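Propose amino acids for all 289 sites.
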């Protein structure tokens, strides 16, 4: 019964993974990769690709923005998602309508959202540009042409896209918390803040830990938003690891170096994921046991 699953996983996951790791130790490029007519001529070069990447100025610059991109996005995903989940968990009129409207960013395909936001940020004909001019800002910034504003633009777009998922996941966690615990704490005189921190947050911890970890991984590898809105520009200022690896493979055609980028990304996510799970488990044992 496990054989079909093993075959599919081996074909679609493990073989490409092993192949990519092996490529990362070669100097493969578009001239040496070969095809069915021309044999490959690339050579094994050891860890030279890794050394070149880790000692380059590009790596430090891309790593800095990747860290900012990941943690700022996930912070706002979680905080805004939690606020909306707490609001929608209460009895109110038209609650179902609000839920449906808040799900729209998640329901729309991300590449369509990226093109829509790119039009909104367009200078000087985008909606945001014209709106700011109506408010009296006669020379709005070039949101996709200025490095600082371009970073703001892609982060705001991804926050808009990611909040609905976090909201739905946390809302499910809130609805799983026993109401009797909240009622009992209120009877005992606990304030709204104490009820939130001592009852709601411990109840949300398993869900929150999982969705934050997923959000970190997804955001770290979020390729399409940056690629479709800024293309990594201007002057590579909005490049993250995923888009820079794509550039190495399909713009510079350095397949060995691109594979090394992929292995570095995978290694960083494995280390961070393991550390994060350990911290969450330890904090749960020490403070929320």
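Proposal:
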């Amino acid at each position: 019964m496990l054989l079909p699953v093993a075959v599919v996983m081996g074909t679609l996951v493990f073989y490409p993974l092993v192949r990519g790791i092996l490529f990362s130790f070669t100097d493969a490029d578009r001239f040496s990769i070969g095809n069915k007519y021309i044999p490959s001529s690339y050579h094994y070069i050891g860890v030279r690709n890794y050394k070149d990447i880790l000692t380059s100025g590009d790596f430090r610059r891309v790593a800095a923005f990747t860290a900012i991109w990941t943690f700022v996005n996930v912070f706002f995903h979680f905080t805004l998602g939690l606020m909306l989940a707490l609001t929608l968990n209460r009895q109110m009129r038209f609650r179902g309508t609000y839920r449906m409207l808040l799900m729209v960013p998640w329901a729309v395909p991300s590449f369509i959202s990226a093109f829509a936001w790119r039009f909104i940020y367009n200078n000087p004909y985008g909606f945001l540009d014209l709106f700011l001019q109506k408010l009296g800002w006669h020379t709005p910034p070039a949101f996709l042409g200025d490095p600082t504003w371009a970073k703001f633009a892609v982060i705001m777009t991804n926050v808009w896209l990611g909040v609905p998922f976090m909201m739905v996941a946390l809302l499910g966690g809130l609805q799983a918390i026993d109401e009797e615990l909240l009622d009992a704490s209120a009877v005992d005189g606990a304030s709204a803040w104490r009820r939130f921190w001592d009852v709601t947050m411990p109840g949300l911890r398993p869900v929150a830990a999982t969705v934050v970890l997923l959000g970190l991984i997804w955001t770290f590898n979020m390729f399409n938003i940056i690629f479709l809105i800024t293309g990594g520009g201007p002057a590579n200022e909005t490049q993250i690891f995923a888009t820079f690896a794509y550039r190495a493979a399909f713009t510079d055609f350095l397949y060995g170096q691109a594979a090394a980028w992929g292995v570095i990304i995978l290694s960083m996510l494995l280390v961070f994921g393991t550390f994060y799970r350990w911290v969450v488990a330890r904090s749960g044992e020490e403070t929320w046991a």
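The chain has one domain: 3-287. The CA atoms of residues 40 and 95 lie 61 Å apart.
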